[in-house]
Sequence to fold (540 residues):
Amino acid sequence: MSAFTLGWHIMKERLSAGRMLVIWPLLAIFIIFSSWGLSDPKADLLSGLTIDSAYDVMFASTAFIGLSATMGAVLISFDGISRDRLSGVLEIKLSQPIERSKYARSLLIGHWGAIFFPVLILNLFSLAIIWHRMNELPSVEEFFIYTLGTGLLLLWYTSIQLLASSWAKDMGSSIAIGLGVWMTFTLLWLVLTTVVAGLSGVGVENLNSSEYVEIGGMVDLFSPNGVYNHLLELPLTGVDRGISPLASTIAAIVWSVLPLQLFIRRIERMHP
Amino acid sequence: METSLTLNDVSWRHTVRDYSSWKPWAKKDGPGIHSINLEIHKGQILGLIGPNGAGKSTLMKAICGLYDCKGFDKTCTSRRIGIGYMPEQVRWEGRISVRNTLKTISLMREETVDVGSIIQIVGLSSKSDHHLDNLSQGMRQRLSLACALIGNPKILVLDEPLNGLDPLAQRAFSNLLESLASKGVSIIISSHQVADLEMLADRVALLHHGQLLIEGTLSTVRENLGLDDNSGILEMICSATGIDPGDVSLELSNDDLLPFKQLGGEEE
Fold:
């Protein structure tokens, strides 16, 4: 049996959980409505972004995915380990002959799948909306990069949250760590970027200056949401934040491997 | 008699927070089990008895491979393959059905298992599609037993399995265990009440403060301790440790009351 078989089973369990009744509408509102609004030819975006193509709509809507889907990943995974640990079920699971590393990978696959597949389905709906409103679709390459980037972002949040869940002694601590991480990377990152820019001697009066944009690009490599943005910027022309595609790819690999390895190591050494 | 598992000088100490240090991450060795020597025989029921905190659950978890401690004749992984474990008081909950829960465990055993037959053995047929949230405590105990039975284990380790069961279910449970033992399954069952194991266990092992005080058939144990047939766990511990039953208070569970040195061992 592969980690995927058990992961698939865990995913089905998580998809049937009561909290999905909250997560599905939350995702639908953010993803579908953002695509609908952003694909409106009369849309006037406050940020000064111009929407010229179907991919531009998808790129702009990632701001909403970065808020809702990542929160969904936290809400699905926060009790992935801690609940079983508190209830005693983890003792039963860890006493099974399955390799601990395989079990850890199954948990990750299951929890990741439970948020990724709803997001993917809603993204397909978004495509239909964009096509309906703009009579245009992104290219296969653009859609691939978009889906890959979104999948990776959710993988990073899921592995961080599962790691937090394995550390926490109770579910409250687990969700507190998860929300703290989510707030840092989604809401507070701009503040951190500004602090780093200020300490580096870069003026923060003009956030569109080339120095600040470069510093921002560099700092973003240390945030899952930032790397997600870097990946999605790859197909865009005229966007240069001083980060090469190779640097973005390496950052994506590090974010994929590091939390996962920490999580596997944690499960291997865990005493229920 | 054929031996299913041998424990030779098995020790394990839990790691606990060291409050004497200013560092929040400082840890120190806590309670555990100390130099346990035991043989698990094929087809026999071994009762582990001892008061709260004696180390029964720790010993069981060590046997099941949840703690990577030395002294076993089999590795952690090979022990996990042949052992079915039922922890004490599992709070099964969630919107998952009984059948799906057992399917998850069977996937983790990496074996093709007829989940339906196990559900039938533990008497959960009428509840197989019910959500875990809707199960009573007794039903949850049965589900834990069902998890332990998956994969036809050669050794069953059951931690206080009779807790929460009504007398009828306790009788049915005992019958099931006797039937499994007659088929060659070795069973380790813990309880803090001798009466629970009186009719069931072929041998008993008395644990206290992480140490194995005495082991043998219940009658031999009583005979060696100079006790009559009605004596329970309190009398056994008092006799084995030389404590006067009149002096026993709630502090019996206090770690300082009966240190290892009084039992001929040495506190680490």
